[in-house]
Design a protein that fits this description.
The complex is a heterodimer. By secondary structure, chain A is an alpha/beta fold. Chain A contains 19 helices and 9 strands. In chain A, the strands form 2 sheets. A 7-stranded mixed β-sheet of chain A has the order 3-2-4-1-5-6-7, sandwiched between helices. In chain A, helix 1 packs antiparallel against helix 19 and helix 12 packs parallel to helix 16. In chain B, the strands form 2 sheets. Chain B has a 7-stranded mixed β-sheet with strand order 3-2-4-1-5-6-7, sandwiched between helices. A two-stranded antiparallel sheet of chain B has the order 8-9.
Chain lengths: 547, 529
C-alpha cells in the first residue's frame, strides 16, 4: 500500500519535473523525487536495511577529517585546496556494501561498523557545480546526517539553506562545529549563538537521539596520523555511531523515526510544489485566454470582411463582371429578343477563354492575404501580452515564430480553400442536373459555373438592386442573377448559405491551428496534477501510522 | 579627449541608440549618472573597501592596518553590520561628502599621515544568513573606487565569492586579493594556495590577479600592504580608469542586449534583396487595392460626361439630367470618389503581409529580450494605420488630377448645338404649321420655299440633325482624347504616389533601426579605443 503510493508520487513528481517551466522549479521537483525514490521507497520496504549516514558540510569545514576519524584510518584525503573531496567515499562493511550510490566510491572494510554506511559527501558551497548536486542528492537519501560547520561558517547563508531542507524532510541530525577558538569565553559565546540560530531554524529537537547536541571541536584538534580530527573531541559522535552499530533496536528506532518524520514532512514539501504548479497553471490559463481572445477578435474581423466582400480586389471583380456581362453566359441574363440576339452574337464571336482559373486564384489569394493579416495581428497581440509575463516571456524566447502567424499558415489555408472550391464545383454539378438550363450552362464549363458560385459566396447582394455604388455590388447583382437563372432562386440561396458556413468553418479551423502553437509553446497542462500530488502526499503520511 | 570622457561619450551615444531600438536602458543610465557624480567630487581621495565573506577577517585586517581597535572584532558571526570608513583626520572634512554619497555614515579618523587621500571602508559580509548585509554591500559596490577582497583558506573557493568576481571581472586589474590567516599555513602551503586561487580567479575572467598572503593575527604582510596603500601612484588616474571601465561595461551590457558585438559589425536586419522583393510585393498589393487603372477608367467616363454636359445636344442634355437624377452617373464616373474609397476595394493583407514577413524574419535574428521592444521600434504595431494614412495622403494628392477638366471648345460646341437645336425646333414647328395649320380659314398664303426640289423646312431638319450628329461625334472624339490623356496622367500620378509612400512608410523604421544598431556598434568600438 505505502510503496504503491510512494511510487505514484514519484511518477507524479516526474511529470511535474518534465513540465516545470524554470530550472529552479524542475530541480525542486527532481529533488523531492530523489527523496522519494532513494530514501522513502527503500526505507519503507525494509526498515532493517543498513543505515545511510551522510557527513554533510561546507567546503573546508573538515568533513573528510571527521570521516577518517570515524573510519579510524585515512580513507578520504583531507586537504588544503578547496574543494578537497571530488570523489566522495562511502565506508561500509562488506556485507552491507551493495548498490549504494553510483557516484560513490565504496570502501569495504571488515573493521567498519556493520549495519551502517558512512558517506563523506562533497561540499555544497564551492564553485564546483557537480559537488553541490551530489551533496544535495545525498541529503535526500540520508537516514542520518552528521552536519559539519566551522566557527567561520556557522552563520553562512548557503549551509542554512541546506539545513532548512534537512528540517523540512525531518532527517535525524548530529551537529559538529569545527575550528572553535581556544578562548573559552569566545567558545561559549559562539556555541550560544549557534544554538540560538538552530533554535530559530527549528532544528533544536531534530537530534538523532532527541535534542540536538552540538559537538564543538577546537582549532587544531587533529590526529595527523590518520589525517583525522582528534578522537577525544568527537567522542560524542563516535559513541553515537558505536551505539547504532551495536544496538540493532536503536538502529531500527532511528530508521523508523526518520522515516515517520519524513513521511509526515512530505505534505509540506509537496505543498510548495503543488502550489507553484497551480499558480503556473492559472497563469498559463490566463495567458492562453488572452490568446483565445486575440484570435477570436481576429477571426471576427476576418469574417466581417468576408461578409462584406471587402477583401476582394476590385480588379478581380471587374474582370468577372466584364465576363458575365459580355461572355457566353450573358444570354442567361437576357430575355426575349435580347436572348435571341445574344445567342446569335455568340455564334459569330470568338470568345476569349473565360477568366475562371485566374479569378478563382486571385480570390483565394485575396482571402488568404486577409486571413493571414488578421492571424498576424492576433499572434502579435498575443505575444505582446505574453512578453509582459515571466511565464509567457520564457516561452517566447525559444519561439520567435510566435511573433507572427505560423510559417505554413498561408499554405495550409490555401489547401483547404482549394478543396472547398472543389466541393462547390461538385455540388453545383449535382444541383444542376435537375435543371432545364443545365445542358446549355454546362457547355460553358463547370469551372466557370463553380467560380461564379464561389463569387456568389464572397459577394452577395443582401438586398442590393444593382444601382448601388461600387463594383462589388454590381458584380454581386449580375452574378447572382446569372446563378438564379440557371439554378433557381431558392436553390442558390440554400447553396450559398451552406458554402458560406463551410467557409466560416475552415477559416476558424485555420485560426485554431495557428493559435494551437501558443498552447504547444507552454507545454501540456495536467490539470489535476496539484490535486494528485497533494492527495498522494497525504496518503503517504497516513501510511506512516501503519509503521 | 581623455579615455574617461571618451567612454562616457560612447556610453551616452550607446544609450541613445539603444533607446531607438526600444530597449530598456535604465541600468546604463544609472551607471552614467554614478560616473558623472563621482567625477563631480573634487579632491584626490581614493575610496577602497575591504569586501568578503563573514569571518574571513575584514575587520581584523583593518585593525591590523590601523594598529588599533577601529572596527569591532568578535567570534560570533556575522559581526560587522554597518560599513565603516577609516580616514586620515585632515582629510575628513573633504572626504565626508564623498563617503556620504558612497553610503557610509560611520567614520573613524586616524593620524597615519602617509595614509592620507585613502578612505578604507570595512564592509559587512556578503554570505551570511543576514541578507540585509549583502543588500548593503550590493548597494555600495558600484560607488567604490577599488575593491580589496579578503579571503581565507576556508572560504577562498566559495561560489558566493566567485559569483561576485565573475560579475566584476572587468575591474580585475584594480582588485587586490588579501589572503588572510596565512599564519595557519606553512610556506609551501601558502604558495600552493595562492596558485590554486589564481587559477580559480582566471576562470572567473581575472587573468592577472594580485594576491597577497598575509595575516591580521601575526602581522605578516600587513606592513607591506600599508606601504602599498600609502604609495599608491596616481589616484586620480586610477579613479578615472575605474569609471571608464564602469562606462564601458555598462555599454557592452546594453550592446549585448541588442545582440551587438564589437567583433562583428551589425549587418542590415533585412537583406537588401529580401527587402526589395517585399517592397515590390507591398507596392503591387497596394496598387491592386487602389486600382489606378480603374481610376483612369472613371476619369475617362467622367470627362465624357463633362463634355456632354457642356457641349451635348439638347437630347443628350436631357438624358444626362435624367441619369444624374437616378445616380447612375455616380456609379460609372466618379473618379474622385473612386480614388478616395480605395479602402473598400480589397484586403490590406496584400500590403501588410510582405512587410511583416521580412520583419518577422529579422526579429528572429535578435536576442529574445530585444524582440518585443524591436517590434515597437519597427513600428509594427501601427504599421496598418501608418500605411493607410500614407495611401490616403497619396490618393488625396492625386485627387486634383482626377477631376474632369472643362474646355472652352465644348462650351462653343454647346452653343452651336443649342443653335442647331433651335433650328431643328423651328423647322419642326414650321412643318407642323403646314400640316396641322388652320386649313379652313385662309389668312394668307405663304409659299413654302424650295431649295432645288427639296422644301426648305426639310433641308433645315436634315441639316441640323446631321450637323448636330457631326458636332456630337467631334465632341466625343475630342473628349475621348482629353479623357485618355487625363486618365494616363492620373494613373501615372496615383501609381507614383503609392509606390513612393508605401515603401517609405513600411521600411523607414527599419532604416532607423539599422542606423541605431550601427551607432551602437560604433560606440562600442569607440569605448574599446
Amino acid at each position: 500500500m505505502l510503496p504503491q503510493v510512494l511510487e505514484d508520487l514519484s511518477a507524479a513528481l516526474a511529470r511535474r519535473a518534465l513540465s516545470a517551466p524554470t530550472r529552479e522549479s524542475r530541480e525542486q521537483a527532481e529533488r523531492l523525487r530523489t527523496h522519494v525514490d532513494s530514501y522513502l521507497l527503500p526505507r519503507a520496504s525494509d526498515l532493517a536495511a543498513p543505515l545511510f549516514v551522510v557527513i554533510l558540510g561546507s567546503t573546508g569545514s573538515g568533513k573528510s577529517s571527521l570521516f577518517n576519524a570515524l573510519a579510524r584510518r585515512a580513507v578520504s584525503p583531507s586537504g588544503l585546496l578547496r574543494p578537497t573531496t571530488r570523489h566522495p567515499v562511502a565506508l561500509a562493511h562488506p556485507d552491507d556494501s551493495i548498490d549504494i550510490h553510483p557516484d560513490l566510491l565504496v570502501v569495504s572494510d571488515r573493521a567498519a561498523p556493520k549495519g551502517l554506511v558512512i558517506v563523506d559527501s562533497p561540499d555544497f558551497d564551492s564553485v564546483e557545480q557537480h559537488n553541490r548536486q551530489l551533496a544535495l542528492d545525498l541529503l535526500e537519501k540520508a537516514d542520518l546526517v552528521i552536519f559539519v560547520t566551522t566557527v567561520t561558517r556557522y552563520a553562512d547563508q548557503v549551509p542554512w539553506l541546506v539545513l532548512d531542507r534537512a528540517r523540512q524532510r525531518g532527517v535525524p541530525l548530529l551537529m559538529v562545529i569545527n575550528r572553535m577558538p581556544v578562548d573559552i569565553q569566545d567558545r561559549t559565546e559562539v556555541l550560544a549563538d549557534y544554538r540560538e540560530l538552530l533554535e530559530r531554524g527549528g532544528l533544536d529537537n531534530q537530534g538523532a537521539f532527541g535534542d540536538l547536541e552540538v559537538v564543538s571541536v577546537a582549532e587544531g584538534a587533529l590526529d595527523p596520523e590518520r589525517d583525522a580530527l582528534g578522537a577525544e573531541p568527537i567522542s560524542p559522535i563516535s559513541s553515537a555511531i558505536e551505539k547504532l552499530r551495536s544496538d540493532d533496536a536503536a538502529r531500527r528506532a532511528v530508521a523508523r523515526r526518520g522515516l515517520i518524520t519524513a513521511l509526515e514532512g512530505l505534505p509540506g514539501g509537496v505543498e510548495q510544489i503543488a502550489d507553484e504548479t497551480e499558480k503556473e497553471q492559472q497563469a498559463t490559463a490566463a495567458l492562453l485566454e488572452e490568446v483565445d481572445r486575440a484570435y477570436e477578435r481576429g477571426l471576427r474581423k476576418l469574417l466581417d470582411e468576408v461578409e462584406s466582400g471587402d477583401f476582394l480586389r476590385s480588379e478581380v471583380l471587374q474582370q468577372w463582371l466584364d465576363f458575365v456581362r459580355a461572355g457566353p453566359l450573358a444570354r442567361f441574363l437576357a430575355e426575349g429578343v435580347g436572348k435571341i440576339a445574344a445567342t446569335i452574337r455568340n455564334l459569330f464571336r470568338t470568345e476569349p477563354p473565360p477568366p475562371a482559373p485566374p479569378v478563382r486564384e486571385a480570390a483565394f489569394s485575396d482571402l488568404v492575404a486577409s486571413a493571414r493579416r488578421h492571424a498576424d495581428d492576433a499572434a502579435r497581440a498575443s505575444s505582446s501580452t505574453w512578453s509582459g509575463e515571466p511565464l509567457g516571456d520564457r516561452a517566447l524566447a525559444d519561439r520567435p515564430d510566435l511573433l507572427a502567424a505560423g510559417g505554413d499558415f498561408d499554405e495550409r489555408l490555401r489547401e483547404s480553400l482549394a478543396s472547398w472550391g472543389e466541393a462547390i464545383g461538385s455540388e453545383i454539378a449535382t444541383l444542376g442536373q435537375q435543371r432545364k438550363a443545365w445542358a446549355q450552362a454546362a457547355s460553358v464549363g463547370l469551372n466557370v459555373l463553380g467560380t461564379s458560385a464561389m463569387i456568389a459566396v464572397f459577394v452577395h447582394t443582401g438586398g442590393l438592386t444593382g444601382t448601388e455604388v461600387g463594383i462589388g455590388a454590381a458584380t454581386a447583382f449580375l452574378n447572382q442573377k446569372l446563378l438564379e437563372a440557371i439554378f433557381g432562386e431558392a436553390n442558390v440561396a440554400a447553396f450559398v448559405k451552406r458554402a458560406r458556413s463551410r467557409l466560416t468553418e475552415l477559416l476558424s479551423e485555420a485560426f485554431q491551428r495557428d493559435q494551437a502553437r501558443f498552447a504547444a509553446a507552454v507545454g501540456p497542462m495536467e490539470k489535476d496534477l496539484p490535486a494528485t500530488l497533494r492527495r498522494l502526499a497525504h496518503e503517504a503520511r497516513a501510511g506512516a501510522m501503519t509503521l | 579627449m581623455t579615455a574617461l570622457s571618451e567612454s562616457l561619450a560612447a556610453l551616452a551615444e550607446g544609450i541613445a541608440a539603444a533607446q531607438d531600438l526600444g530597449l530598456d536602458t535604465t541600468d546604463a543610465e544609472r551607471t552614467a549618472d554614478l560616473v558623472e557624480q563621482r567625477i563631480g567630487f573634487a579632491g584626490n581621495t581614493y575610496v577602497i573597501a575591504l569586501a568578503g565573506g563573514t569571518g574571513v577577517g575584514k575587520s581584523s585586517l583593518l585593525n591590523a592596518l590601523a594598529e588599533s581597535n577601529v572596527s569591532e572584532v568578535r567570534a560570533i558571526r556575522p559581526t560587522t553590520s554597518r560599513p565603516l570608513a577609516w580616514v586620515e583626520e585632515n582629510d575628513r572634512q573633504e572626504v565626508e561628502p564623498l563617503l556620504e554619497w558612497v553610503g557610509v555614515e560611520d567614520v573613524v579618523d586616524h593620524q597615519h599621515r602617509n595614509l592620507a587621500d585613502v578612505a578604507i571602508i570595512d564592509l559587512p559580509d556578503v554570505d551570511s544568513v543576514n541578507l540585509g548585509h549583502r543588500a548593503t554591500v550590493d548597494a555600495l559596490l558600484p560607488r567604490i573606487d577599488a575593491l580589496y577582497w579578503v579571503v581565507d583558506p576556508e572560504k577562498y573557493d566559495d561560489e558566493r565569492l566567485h559569483g561576485y568576481l565573475r560579475q566584476l571581472s572587468a575591474h580585475g586589474d584594480r582588485m587586490v586579493f588579501l589572503f588572510n590567516k596565512a599564519d595557519r599555513l606553512g610556506e609551501d602551503d601558502q604558495r600552493l594556495l595562492a596558485e590554486d586561487f589564481a587559477r580559480r580567479l582566471s576562470t572567473d575572467g581575472i587573468g592577472r590577479s594580485s594576491i597577497r598572503m598575509l595575516s591580521a593575527r601575526d602581522g605578516q604582510g600587513v606592513a607591506d600592504l600599508r606601504r602599498d596603500l600609502a604609495g599608491a601612484a596616481d589616484r586620480k588616474a586610477a579613479v578615472a580608469a575605474k569609471l571608464a571601465t564602469d562606462a564601458a561595461t555598462a555599454l557592452s551590457e546594453v550592446a549585448s542586449k541588442a545582440g551587438i558585438e564589437a567583433e562583428t559589425p551589425p549587418t542590415s536586419l533585412v537583406e537588401a534583396k529580401m527587402r526589395a522583393r517585399a517592397s515590390q510585393e507591398a507596392v503591387t498589393g497596394a496598387l491592386a487595392v487602389v486600382d489606378p487603372a480603374g481610376v483612369g477608367r472613371q476619369v475617362r467616363a467622367a470627362v465624357q460626361n463633362q463634355a456632354r454636359r457642356q457641349g451635348g445636344s439638347l437630347l443628350v442634355r436631357i438624358l444626362a439630367l435624367l441619369s444624374s437624377l437616378t445616380g447612375t452617373r455616380r456609379r460609372t464616373a466618379d473618379p474622385e470618389g473612386y480614388l478616395m474609397n480605395w479602402r473598400r476595394r480589397g484586403s490590406l493583407g496584400h500590403i501588410l503581409n510582405p512587410v511583416r514577413r521580412v520583419v518577422t524574419d529579422a526579429l528572429a535574428k535578435l536576442p529574445a529580450g530585444a524582440r518585443t521592444p524591436a517590434i515597437a521600434a519597427l513600428g509594427m504595431n501601427d504599421l496598418e494605420a501608418r500605411l493607410v494614412s500614407a495611401i490616403d495622403q497619396a490618393t488625396r494628392q492625386s485627387r486634383e488630377a482626377a477631376r474632369p477638366p472643362r474646355s472652352f471648345l465644348w462650351g462653343l460646341v454647346g452653343v452651336i448645338q443649342l443653335a442647331l437645336g433651335g433650328v431643328l425646333l423651328f423647322a419642326i414647328a414650321w412643318y407642323l404649321t403646314i400640316i396641322f395649320g388652320p386649313g379652313g380659314i385662309e389668312v394668307a398664303t405663304v409659299e413654302v420655299p424650295y431649295l432645288g426640289p427639296v422644301p426648305v423646312p426639310l433641308v433645315l431638319v436634315v441639316a441640323s440633325l446631321v450637323a448636330s450628329f457631326i458636332f456630337g461625334a467631334l465632341l466625343s472624339i475630342h473628349a475621348g482624347w482629353i479623357g485618355r490623356r487625363q486618365a494616363r496622367l492620373v494613373t501615372a500620378r496615383v501609381t507614383a504616389a503609392v509606390e513612393s509612400t508605401v515603401s517609405d512608410t513600411a521600411f523607414a523604421p527599419l532604416d532607423r533601426m539599422d542606423e541605431a544598431r550601427r551607432r551602437l556598434h560604433a560606440a562600442l568600438l569607440q569605448s574599446r579605443g
